[in-house]
Amino acid sequence: MPPSTSLQPPRLNNSALPDLLIVKRIAKIPISQAYRMSTCSDVESPLPGYGTTANPPGSTIPPNTVYSQPHFTSGDFAEENPRPVLKPGLYVPTLTFFKKDTEVLDEETIADHAVRMAKAGAAGLLTQGTNGEAAHLLHLERTVVTKTTRDALDRAGYVHIPVIVGCGAQSTRETIELCREAQSSGGDYAIILPPSYYKGMYTTESIKRFYTDVANASPIPILIYNYPSVTAGVDLDSDTIIELAKHTKIVGCKLTCGNTGKLNRIAAATKCQTHTDRGSGFMCMGGSADFTLQTLVGRGSGVVAGLANLTPRICNKLIELYTTGKVDEAQTLQAAVARGDQAATKTGIVGTKSALQTFYGYGGYARRPLPRPTEQEVTNYSSAFEEIVGMEKLV
């Protein structure tokens, strides 16, 4: 199949965007029905060829040195495309929930959890991330999770909240396919880990080419996801991310590496969006609740916090305290949030789901081969999260 010559979605009249957004989503094929009919069968998804038509000859990155982002506007929806805009604040990488006995997707709980996060003040949700057990999901299941999340938000009146979808894969081709599937299931943006399986053979230029090829072919804007712990130690440096940020369809980054110096450099170079400065619109986000305050002090855009699955109001309160000038209170709360996030980091998805089950009556288990906690572990997890959940219930 020849390379596609039309990689960009059509431009639409801005006045019709909210209605068009809803109509587009209602008209989608019943993905969840297809999933229930065949949860284990392979589904063909032909991938059109991808090219680098957005690049000038001999260039790795399209020549946009202003870091201006096409998704960015002062309203709730992008001016060129019917998608909610990314705004500074708290983003929740949502868990994926399964039926306890069968490990089949629990769509009702996925939907309810998404709405709970929105009600707590989340600026956006992220599906198919590390917390979302993307590594355990079939392609069709990924689309079900994203569509279920998007539809639940829309029904509850949160059409303005963006859904970012994890689309990282080991090949450029599959990554682009995941981006297209993300769009078709209601995703507004894709977030992408660097490839890592052949780590020893990758160069900085090949990683740049990977992100450039994906950005050129993806029907939705992308964010860079840097998390060395899950990519065999592949750790993108600030220079690489700053250069890639010049691409008009690379609109942000999530730094779960915890390197605040890197975050500071990227935030400054890209003039990223903050609570007090619209900047270029680029989103430079910390990837963990335990350095929320450090991210904001370093002029980052916000955080993507796994702990927020359990305590979204407290995570949001921390941002609110800092952005309203209550720095001393924010520092005190950050210490408690860091203790809670340490528990989440140590116990992982298993501990977070166990705590959700204990304190909120839902959560269930992670998919095998992740273990199910013993009775003693359930007690230990409850104790580890007791402080931060107690604070959550007082907000």
What keyword list fits this structure?
alpha/beta; 8 strands; globular; 395 residues; single chain; eight-stranded parallel β-barrel; disordered N terminus; TIM Barrel
Please provide a written account of the structure.
By secondary structure, this protein is of the alpha/beta class. The chain has a domain at 63-315: Aldolase class I (TIM Barrel). 41% of the residues lie in helices and 9% in strands. Strands 1-2-3-4-5-6-7-8 form an 8-stranded parallel barrel, surrounded by 6 helices. Strand 5 (222-226), helix 7 and strand 6 form a beta-alpha-beta unit. Helix 2 crosses helix 4 and helix 7 (238-244) runs parallel beside helix 8 (260-270). The radius of gyration is 20 Å and the shape is globular. It starts with 16 loop residues before the first helix and ends with a helix.
Describe what is shown at a glance:
The chain is of the alpha/beta class and 395 residues long.
Shape: globular
Strand order of the largest sheet: 1-2-3-4-5-6-7-8
Quaternary class = single chain
Beta-strand content: 5-15%
Helix content: 40-55%
The N- and C-terminal alpha carbons lie at a distance of 56 Å
> What gyration radius follows from the Cα positions, in whole Å?
20 Å
Given as residue ranges, the uncertain stretches (5+ residues, pLDDT < 50) are 1-29, 36-66
Residue-averaged pLDDT: 85
- Supply the number of helical segments: 12
Q: How would you classify the helix and strand content by structural class?
A: alpha/beta
Helix-strand pattern, N to C?
HHEHEHEHEHEHEHEHEHHH
* Number of separate strands: 8
Main sheet?
8 strands, parallel, barrel
CATH homologous superfamily annotation of the domain at 63-315: Aldolase class I
CATH class (first level) name of the domain at 63-315: Alpha Beta
CATH architecture of the domain at 63-315: Alpha-Beta Barrel
CATH topology descriptor of the domain at 63-315: TIM Barrel
